[in-house]
Fold each of these.
Amino acid sequence: MTTPDDSRSPNAATRAKAALQRDPWDLPDVSGLVVGVLGGTGDQGRGLAYRLARAGQKVIIGSRAAERAQTAAGELGLGIEGEENAECARRSDVVIIAVPWDGHAKTLQALAGELDGKLVIDCVNPLGFDRKGAYAIKPEEGSAAEQAAALLPGARVTAAFHHLSAVLLQDPEIEQIDTDVMVLGESRADTDVVQALAARIPGMRGVFAGRLRNAHQVESLVANLFSVNRRYKAHAGLRVTDV
């Protein structure tokens, strides 16, 4: 006698085998997705909004105040719109979280309903600063991304876009940004979408880097990049070799 689990296991094994055999660079078409950027009036959020819109993506900037979001959107142009955070989340297919770390939990708690069912990309880096420079903070949940997943049980949370220079992102004279984007998440379908979004930005490539439990070290590496940039007066990013 077979159980329901027995009857599903061959299909599950087949799907897992097929996933392993797939070309990892065969990514979906994401050109029709609306991308919302919560924290889009800050440097990182503005930079991501600008680069994605410049690549042809429909982008909505979110802020606690709609007027502030609309002002930032008008300054960026490229068809970017500005909305209050909740409306930005409602209107978007994919939502990037680019708020300051100290407002991360409060922002997500307030928007849990609007983010239900959405693909969320958390790019927040929990960092502290003292006279010695930047240092990593480890949240109780393990990482900012894991905190987001705990606060947004109805969303599909991923993590990406941590290691990008806001200066380069916002510079209209720079045609392409040569860097890799580490992408983490629980579902391959979701991480493929995030990789595809990253690949829309010239010079950029999304690389799968594990499940959300591995997000802390990716977020923390930004503290090291601060030190690199300070010493060499650079805007360093990352490249993953041999893939």
Note: The mean pLDDT is 93.
Amino acid sequence: MIRRSSLLSAPVRLTALLLVLVFAATGCHRGDKKKDADEGAPVEQLFEKSHTLMEGGNWSGAENSFKRLIAQYPYGPYTEQAMIESAYAQYKAGKNDDAVSSIDRFIRTYPTHRNIAYMYYLRGLANGNRDTVFLRRVWSLDPSRRDLSTPRQAYADFNIVADRYPNSRYAADARQRMVILRDIFAQHELDDGLYYARRGAWVSAAGRANYLLETYPQSAFQYDAVALLGEAYTHLGNKTLADDARRVLELNQPEHPWLAGNWPKYPWMIRKLNPFAGEKSVATGQSNATMGK
């Protein structure tokens, strides 16, 4: 009985051993094939592959491919360009935090690079979009009504481009974006002032309006700030300053609705109870879903 059992188990053991060897060989072959896909490829070939992925809109694939190039070839002109392209791919993929980190690393490593103006410009774009992509698309959040720390950093980035590199191809667009951001900052101050006005805190409302006029002169909301001053001074009983505000509006923006008693218009209270409705800006009277486009 013992001898027969040994004879029967020998083929079973042999078959099991063969299966183990086959699976091990297959697994090693597949792993090596995947691992060695770009291993040792020339830097030019890796860069061309990465760039082709980016041109096709495969931002994540391009980012990973550029990172593979950088890991294999940590120095050289192709590596420098790959770092730039990788940051751009991250920005296009909506990975704004990653893009800012990559750009900061590039600026520290190559502070005098010939494309440094572009990197500051790209950092401005990424900073301007940080913490906003999801919120603006899903909740229709007006950028003036959120935390402004990253937009202010974007403004600083664009200012570097305009100030240090005024002759670069990005300077003109950087200046235009600074104007847009200044209007966002000004609207933020105006909305705060109108918040105080709605609650009868007229001194605080006037303070916000004055701060807007002093800090963001010639913004798109400067005459709204004047109107808020007129409204605040009227309620504070300061007829002289209220009349001054009215005269400024009559001379510079005679069609302003405050002169006809139709400003500001606060949103209908029931609307504020709907979490899926884009919050209406008192400053503009527009839905933030429209303003965010």
Note: Residues 27 and 144 are 55 Å apart (CA to CA).
